[in-house]
Design a protein that fits this description.
- It is a single chain.
- By secondary structure, the chain is mostly beta strands.
- The chain is built from no helices and 24 strands.
- It starts with 9 loop residues before the first strand and ends with a strand.
- InterPro entries: DUF2804.
- This is DUF2804 domain-containing protein.
Length: about 350
């Protein structure tokens, strides 16, 4: 499979609202010119999703919308006990009122209500994530996390959909961000240490069809003292120009081809095997926790099994170097969306 890498800077969309270039890049080369979208406004979807995790706990912070509905959420859960804390604020007809940043690499984002504040700040080489909830109408939260961004390489992909030429997905994922800080929830305190905890940014902008499925896997850790991460997935549109499968090692991105897996086969908590057609991603996956979520609101019906587990196997970098992976805690998910 030919993987088309985008090198030439320019706008994402043409005057007709279609993608000017299709493929992947290792940094934000294209400019998200939102004003050129020609699809109906209720088809636009935009989100900033941060995940901070280690071997024991996962914190997820989201500000996003699907035009006719918005969701601001903070979730923390323990893998071993299944204990979960959650706050979600739903917005009716937000459309562009959240003022989502036009780039994953710059621009702050904040949601503010009397009893709840969520703020994402982007600095040169780092990010700060804050949540404050008074506890008046939900659990009391005080979260302050700093993510260091030492690596310049990341995954950016511009993907069309076959259903309509005005549909597209522009996605920027940043792995391997060492995380430090504290999440205080009611009377419980969770400490994130940068030697064991890593942050992920999933920055998504696009115009989507109403119904589709996707499979997505991601993780970051240290291997022999070096930062290692991966992103795998399919179902996000027509990926003939490029897949979104990529390895990260010691600050460098390594593009790989198709990775095959079926998360639902034999049940979501059954052991799985992942294999790429170029032999560069070969993993055994042993689930430990299924973070199942379901959202039903009017015609919206979204279900997602986000399964965390331990990855064991090997990957091969662009130069042929083999990296052995042992008990890496990461996730793979299957989402079924009608939105």
């Amino acid at each position: 499979m030919i993987q088309k890498e985008i090198h030439e800077p320019g706008n994402l969309l043409s005057n007709e609202g279609t993608l000017l270039q299709r493929g992947y890049s290792k940094k934000g080369v294209l400019t998200y010119n939102r004003e050129k979208i020609k699809a109906p406004p209720w088809r636009v979807k935009e989100w900033d999703f941060y995940q901070i995790s280690n071997d024991k706990v996962c914190l997820q912070l989201t500000i996003g919308h699907v035009s006719y509905a918005g969701s601001i959420s903070a979730n923390l859960f323990e893998f071993e006990t299944g204990k979960k804390y959650s706050i979600t604020k739903m917005l009716a007809l937000p459309f562009n009122r959240l003022h989502m940043p036009q780039s994953a690499e710059q621009g702050d984002l904040m949601f503010h209500r009397k009893d709840f504040i969520m703020k994402f700040e982007v600095f040169n080489g780092s990010r700060r994530l804050q949540v404050k909830s008074s506890g008046e109408k939900a659990q009391k939260m005080n979260i302050d996390i700093t993510l260091e961004q030492p690596d310049l390489s990341s995954l950016v992909i511009a993907t069309p959909f076959d259903e309509d030429p005005s549909y597209f997905y522009y996605n920027h994922k940043i792995n391997c961000m060492p995380a430090r800080g504290i999440a205080r929830i009611d009377d419980k305190e969770y400490i994130f240490d940068s030697s064991t905890s890593f942050g992920l940014l999933d920055w998504g902008r696009g115009v989507w069809p109403f119904q589709h499925n996707w499979y997505w896997g991601n993780g970051s850790c240290l291997v022999d003292g070096k930062r290692f991460g991966f992103n795998i997935g399919y179902g996000f549109g027509n990926t003939e120009a490029a897949t979104e499968n990529m390895l990260f090692y010691d600050g460098t991105a390594h593009k790989i081809n198709q990775v095959y897996f079926n998360l639902s086969e034999n049940g979501y908590m059954a052991k799985k095997y992942f294999s790429s057609d170029d032999g560069r991603f070969e993993m055994e996956f042993t689930p430990i926790y299924d973070n199942y979520t379901e959202t039903k609101l009017l015609w919206v019906n979204n279900r997602c099994h986000q399964v965390f587990g331990r990855f064991n196997g090997q990957v091969i970098l662009d130069d042929g170097k083999i990296i052995e992976i042992k008990d890496m805690v990461a996730f793979c998910e299957h989402a079924i969306n009608r939105w």
